[in-house]
Amino acid sequence: MIESYECNSDAIILENIARNRFKSPYRMDVVPIQLLKVIISQLAKFHGLSFVLKHEKRDYFENKIETIKSPLHFDKNAWKDTNSEVVLIDYQFMFYASPIIDILYFIYTGTDGQLREAHMNELKDLYHTELTKFLQYFALNVNDIYPREVYEKDFQDSLDFGLMAALYVSPVIFTEEDVYPDFGKDDWSFKINKRHKERITQIVEEYLECGILN
Question: What confidence tens digit (pLDDT) does each residue in 59-70 have?
């Protein structure tokens, strides 16, 4: 567990786990399946906290959580290693929505077609299993909170977000280190790594195969 030194309305100050030999994978690499399973498990617990708040502190949830709107608005008809001692974690993209959005965002920006073909169902099962176990700590039954059949339907109904997220975010992920875009200008210049085309092609082919694209 990462230690929290301070938490208030202005900031959350967390332990620098890089000092304890923690290393982040290179952003262009496929996330290793062992790490992927850990992240999906932790994501289920993180989302589980929202379900607990909704059940235990309804007023707070409705006033402080449900009101957080998404800063991203995808138009479906028209497809934009630090060495510092202090690292800012930007929460501007935190908003109230289906938990499937986080799962798909992470999977489709951090994996390739081979990994998804081999492990997508396993990861989907793992998430709901971990969510079930986490809710049990608070005497909550997942069938009352987020039943498996609802989860499966949400997953299927939200699949288009995976493609949109990949198209939106992947140019940044695969930008070469020596050419970063100037986000303060309207004209962004990218030098894209050759792995970008392969990764996006795999995703488009998946979506054609499942019928979301035609």
Answer: 988 888 888 777
